[in-house]
Design goal:
Helix content is about 25%, strand content about 20%. The chain is an alpha+beta fold. It has five domains: about 90 residues, 2-Layer Sandwich (Alpha-Beta Plaits); about 60 residues, no CATH class; about 150 residues, DHBP synthase (Alpha-Beta Complex), CATH 3.90.870.40; about 150 residues, Nucleotidyltransferase, domain 5 (2-Layer Sandwich), CATH 3.30.420; about 35 residues. Helix 5 crosses helix 8. The termini are far apart. The structure holds zinc ion (ZN) (2 copies).
Length: about 600
């Protein structure tokens, strides 16, 4: 062919599970290019393409311009090949294992508008009211994928082979047709071949199965009657009820939580909260994004309490709101109407959410009245992410679904192949370093129980596996300085297992280091940081709390701090701040005077 050229292109970034291969295939096809497209695990996507020079140039130009919305391109490298081989067809080749310093797998993606329309369209038969509907651009990813490269056989969807005869078109036909929006999508299915919901009572007996419409009618009846429903979803289980005072108090009592513990609320649209909460443009945007986090929205002064009960977050000036992100959420609101729902993690205090059906019922039978469970395995448990907007910037409070496994970049080059950090004890996430990138695990919670201990270890090993980090590449382990933290014990285990050094980092210095990295502080710069976080084990063996720290990336100096105080019950002061106040009063006034003060302010009762 005259003026024909062959090129090899290697693309890295989030280029798997976001409709990238189908996009490349159709772009190449439209330009009459031949050759192949190959998924190479963490090494990204490789293409070998042959065609007219002008068409190849068009192709390269359009990769970044027309890429799927959720994909993220880190790098495109192109080289010419002096190929004498002539390609007759364009093909998507079978994936191969490849290693790189990045991770090509995306986070879980909220159901897209097109799938939502199909789910509500009776003509679509196999998708009508089918809550697990998904496509190349939406659906669960991180929670379902066991390992890379990203293909159905390495995901929990392996148990649901594509159907061959469903109406109006079979799943295998959709998968194979380059004009279909499910061409080469990996985690979709339909009501004929895919997972299903079943309704159970507290004893684990089936009360409704198969017909989703019957199930939804029954759920609506039970929710309107004041029952609490446990729903297994994308990355875990939620406890759900109508957001009225009576239900909220009942649920809080059943969970054994303190009277001011707030709940998250799911609403079908933001109009419902307009009269009670303030919503900025940025908050609206992130709430509606494919990440669908819980966003803390400020309560309006004299806001409409009839629409947003004060019991949801008593004593706080904000409420955590999220929008529906999976098919079942939308169906729920289609049936129950435009009412806010309490949508809180289905777990007992400090224990991770159960994700296996029998364990869900076992763990939640005193909390929920009915159980809506599906038969797809949740491979990775993820909680809903929680954030607030501050000066138009996202401030993450809990980083999980919709964000994991995306990485954070350090603002300097790092000559370390890999390292593992186990974090502190409360509100923990683990992390794996890969060169200058930090891959955090999903939110783990308080590592104070065997279940969270296992969860942290499993999540770290899963991340290591996704990143294809070999044991021999791990150069050190990092953890908190506190000798009694369970996370410190895990770090010690890892240090022996991988036969590498263990670095224990002072808690407040670690916070300042995070701030430095987040704010692009350069490798040779120093900062003065103020850390008023809870308590942290100090380098002098005392418990610190409230530090002014002069810090660079190698060392720190504690140049100022709050006065030392006795702590009644030690670390329990972080959980019960009244204990800290009592300690200070006792220290200052002595026992007789302090007792009088305690009686007056009823501190003893808390
Ligand atoms: Zn979709
Ligand atoms: Zn099917």
């Amino acid at each position: 062919m005259k003026d024909s050229k062959t090129i090899e292109a290697n693309i890295t970034g989030i280029v798997q599970g976001v409709g990238f291969r189908p996009f490349l295939y159709n772009l190449a096809r439209s330009l009459n290019l031949k050759g192949y497209i190959l998924n190479r695990g963490n090494a990204g996507v490789r293409l070998v393409l042959q065609g007219f020079s002008a068409n190849l140039n068009d192709f390269i130009e359009n990769i970044k311009l027309k890429k799927p919305q959720i994909s993220f391109i880190e790098n495109v490298s192109i080289k010419s090949l002096n190929s004498i081989k002539k390609f007759d067809i364009l093909a998507i080749k079978e994936s191969e294992q490849g290693r790189g310093t990045s991770l090509t797998l995306p986070t879980d993606i909220a159901i897209c508008e097109t799938c939502l329309k199909d789910m509500r369209n009776p003509q679509m038969k196999k998708y009508y009211q089918y809550p697990f509907i998904a496509c190349a651009l939406c659906g669960p990813r991180f929670t379902t994928v066991k390992e890379l490269p990203y293909d159905r056989e390495r995901s929990t969807m392996i148990e649901f082979p594509f159907c061959t005869h469903a109406e109006p078109i079979s799943c295998i036909k959709e998968y194979s047709d380059f004009n279909n929006r499910r061409f080469h999508a990996q985690t979709f299915s339909c009501s004929v071949c895919g997972p299903h919901y079943t309704l159970y009572d507290r004893e684990g007996e089936v009360t409704q199965e198969k017909q989703i419409e019957d199930i939804l009618v029954e759920i609506t009846r039970r929710l309107n009657g004041g029952d609490v429903l446990a729903i297994k979803g994308i990355g875990g289980t939620h406890l759900v009820c109508l957001a009225n005072d009576k239900n909220i108090l009942k649920l809080r009592k059943r969970k054994g939580e303190r009277k001011y513990k707030p709940f998250a609320v799911m609403v079908p649209n933001l109009d419902i909260v307009r009269d009670s909460l303030k919503i900025s443009l940025e908050e609206r945007e992130i709430l509606n994004s494919f990440r669908r986090p819980i966003v803390l929205l400020e309560k309006k002064n004299n806001g409409d309490e009839s629409k947003m009960s004060n019991q949801i977050a008593p004593g706080l000036n904000n409420i955590g709101i999220m929008l529906p992100y999976s098919g079942i959420h939308h169906l729920l609101f289609d049936f129950i109407g435009e009412k806010p729902l309490i949508y809180t993690s289905g777990n007992k205090s400090s224990i991770p959410m159960a994700i296996e059906n029998t364990k869900i019922i076992e763990q939640l039978k005193d909390l929920a009245d009915i159980f809506l469970l599906h038969n797809r395995q949740i491979y990775q448990r993820v909680d809903d992410s929680v954030l607030r907007m501050h000066d138009s910037k996202v401030k993450l409070i809990r980083r999980s679904r919709g964000f994991v496994p995306e990485y954070l970049s350090l603002p300097f080059e790092v000559d370390i192949s890999s390292a593992i950090a186990t974090g502190p004890e409360l509100m923990t996430t683990g992390a794996i370093l890969r060169r200058n990138r930090i891959f955090q695990t999903q939110h783990i919670g308080h590592v104070t129980h065997l279940e969270t201990y296992d969860f942290l270890k499993e999540s770290l090993f899963h991340m290591q596996n996704l990143l294809q980090v070999k044991d021999a590449e791990i150069e050190f382990i990092a953890c908190d300085l506190h000798p009694a933290f369970i996370t410190t014990q895990i770090a010690q285990e890892f240090s022996s297992k991988f036969n590498v050094d263990l670095y224990q980092i002072q808690h407040h210095y670690a916070h300042i280091l995070s701030l430095m990295a987040e704010n692009d502080v350069k490798i040779d710069e120093k900062i003065v940081g103020i850390c008023t976080d809870g308590i942290g084990y100090g380098t002098d063996g005392n418990i610190w709390g409230g530090e002014i720290i002069l810090s660079d990336y190698n060392k720190f100096q504690r140049i100022g701090h709050l006065e030392n105080q006795p702590m009644i019950g030690g670390d329990r002061c972080t959980k019960y701040p009244a204990r800290m106040a009592a300690s200070i009063i006792l220290n200052k006034f002595g026992i007789d005077e302090a007792s009088k003060i305690f009686n007056k302010i009823e501190i003893i009762n808390d």
